[in-house]
Design a protein that fits this description.
It is built from 3 helices and 9 strands. It is an alpha+beta fold. It binds fe (iii) ion (FE).
């Protein structure tokens, strides 16, 4: 299971390679996605907290990338963080999510991206529940749930 040291290592030195990659131009993504999903995933936007029913959804299932449908998180790792964004303690696989240092907005954060298509998902923080201690704070608009 990943921990914060792994996240920092991946952010500094690169994430393990994904099983496959999906590459499209910005115009291609814009044609495929709703304006809201395009803004979050391709322009690194952030949805308003508590703006999605997905925060309160804890039924079993798989959460996939809204852009390329690659499986990213399992409901078993979802928890109520109180932040207003869907929160997970671990990715479904160690190479599903990519990590990147994000020093924007005067903060030092680690950005979480889809490792397959580069979609911006959200950020990772070291204040999650045991045993990983990780909190993946993810925009609901970047996810699609399948059961
Ligand atoms: Fe993706």
């Amino acid at each position: 299971m990943m921990n914060w040291k792994d996240v920092l290592n991946f952010a500094d030195n690169g994430t393990p390679l994904p099983d496959k990659t999906v590459v499209k131009s910005e115009a291609e993504w814009q044609a495929l996605l709703s304006p809201e999903v395009f803004h979050i995933t391709r322009l690194k936007g952030t949805e308003r907290p508590h703006s999605s029913e997905l925060c309160n959804l804890f039924s079993s299932g798989i959460y996939s990338c809204a852009c390329c449908q690659t499986e990213l998180f399992d409901s078993s790792g979802k928890f109520e963080s109180g932040t207003g964004w869907p929160s997970f303690t671990e990715p479904i696989k160690s190479n599903a999510v990519a990590y990147s240092a994000d020093n924007s907005h005067g903060m030092r954060r680690v950005e979480a991206l889809c490792n397959t298509c580069g979609a911006h998902l959200g950020h990772v923080f070291p204040d999650g529940p045991a045993p990983s201690g990780l909190r993946f704070c993810i925009n609901a608009l970047a996810l699609r749930k399948t059961s």
